[in-house]
Amino acid sequence: MAGITGLGSNINIDDIVKALTDAERAPKENQLSRVEKAATSKFSAVGQLKSAISEFQTALKDLNSSDLFSKRAAKSSNTDLATVSATKKASSGTYQVTVEKLATASKVGTATFAKDATAAAAGTLTVKLGPDDRGVDVQVAAGASLSEIRDSLNKALKDKGISANIVSNPADGSSRLVLSSDKTGAGKDIYVQASAGLEAFRIGNFADNDPTSSPTGALTALDGNNAASSGYISQAQDAEFTIDGLSLRSASNTVSDAISEVTLNLVSAEPGKKFKVTVEQDTSTVKGNIKKFVDAYNKLMGVTKTLTSVTSVGDDKAPVTGALVGDATVRSLVSTVRNELVNPSGQKDGISILSDLGITTQKDGTLKVEDSKLDKVLSTQYEAVAGFFTGEKGLTARMNSKLDVYTETGGILAKRQDGLQDTLNSVTDQRTKLNQRIEQVQKRLYAQYNAMDSLIANLKQTSDRMSQALSNLPGVVKQS
C-alpha cells in the first residue's frame, strides 16, 4: 500500500501507518520473541545434556567389555630387532630372544647378453622355485628381444611371486636378466631350465650339462666379472633365531608358531644380541578406559552445573542464568548418577567402590584418579577390577541402565525436545498469523488515510475556486 501518498493533505501517511502498525505488532511480537528465545535456549541445553550423557555412556560401554580385560599386551625391548603381538589367549611370560639371521628371498641373474641381443631360436624357459618345484613354462619366440622375454616372464610368473627385470652395463650396453622372488625360506631359490638355443638363460646345476634336465645340487653364486656366469645374487634362506637359548628356524620373518598365540615380527639380525619379549595383561589399555570413564563423568557433571548455574555479573545487572536453572530433570539425573556411583558392588575381594581403585570424589563433585593406587590395584587385583566394572551387576552396566531412560528414542530428553520443538512450531504459526493480521490492519489504515487525503484535496480545490470567484466580483479589492 505504500507509495505516493498525502499529496492532497501534505501529511506523511506512510510514517503514520507504519507507526500505528508497529504499535499494533509490538506486544505480540515481543511475547513471541521471548517464548522463542526461551524455547530455543532450552532446546539447545537439552541437546548439550543429551550429548554429554551419550559420551558418558560410550565410555561406560567401552569399559564394560570382557574383551578389554582379556587382551594381552606384548612388548619387545628392542623393536629395531623385532616387534611382537599376542592374542587374548596368550599366556603371560617373559622370553629372551636373539635374531641371528633374517629369512630372505631368492634373487638370481642370467649370463650376460650383448647389446641388442635376441633369442637365437624359439624354445621354452621353465622357471622353478626350488629344484623340485613343478615350474612354469614360458614360451620364447625366435628373435625375441631381451625386453620381450622379460615381459613374457612377468606375465607368466606374476601368480608365482617372481618378477623379472633387466640390469644393463652403461659402458657397453651388455645386460643380464634378473629374476626376484617374494617367497622367503631355504629351498626356495629360483632355477631356470632352458631348451636348446636358450642356454644363456639357464640358472642352476644340471646333470650331464643338459639344460633341460632337473637342477641338482646347491645353486651357485653369480660371478659378476664372468659374462658367462649365472646364479644367485642373494640366496633364499630361513630366519634363524633363539628363544630362551633354544635355536629355531622359520621360513618367514613373521613367526606365529614359536610361542603359542604370540607373533614375532623379525625386523633385523644382530647375532648374539639379546632382547626381552614380554606378554602380560593389558593394564595400560584398561587404565586408559578407566580414565576415559572418569573424564566423561566429569564432563557430564560440568555440563549439568553450567546449565543450572546462576552467575552474578554486578550489583546493577541481572545475574546470568543457565537455560535449565531449577530443572527437575537435571536434578533427578545428577542424583541418579551420583547414587549409583557410590553404590557398593557387593564383591568380597576388596574392590567394591571406586575409592578402592584410587578414584575419589572432589569438593566440586568431580572424580580424581590416584595413578599410583590404580596401578597397584591393576597389577595385584586385575580380575577383581574386571568384576567391579563388567557384567550385568558391574558398575558400568548398572549406571548405563539408569541413563538409558534419558537418551533412548522416546526417552525423557527426546520427549522434552519434542515438546520444545512444538513450542517453536507454534511460535512460527502465530508469527505467520500476526503478519497476516498486521497486513489487514495496514490495508485498512491506508484506505482510511487515503480517503481523508482525497477529501482534503477536494475541499482545497473548492476553496481555491471560491477564492478565485470572490476575487473577481465588482468592488472587491485584491490585497497585494
TrEMBL record:
One GO term (biological process): bacterial-type flagellum-dependent cell motility
Domain (Flagellar hook-associated protein 2 N-terminal) ranges: 9-105
InterPro entries documented for this protein: Flagellin_hook_IN_motif, FliD, FliD_C, FliD_N
Residues in Flagellar hook-associated protein 2 C-terminal domain copies: 236-460
UniProt-annotated location(s): Secreted; Bacterial flagellum
Superkingdom classification of source: Bacteria
Self-association state and partner proteins as the record states: Homopentamer.
Protein name: Flagellar hook-associated protein 2
Organism: Metapseudomonas lalkuanensis
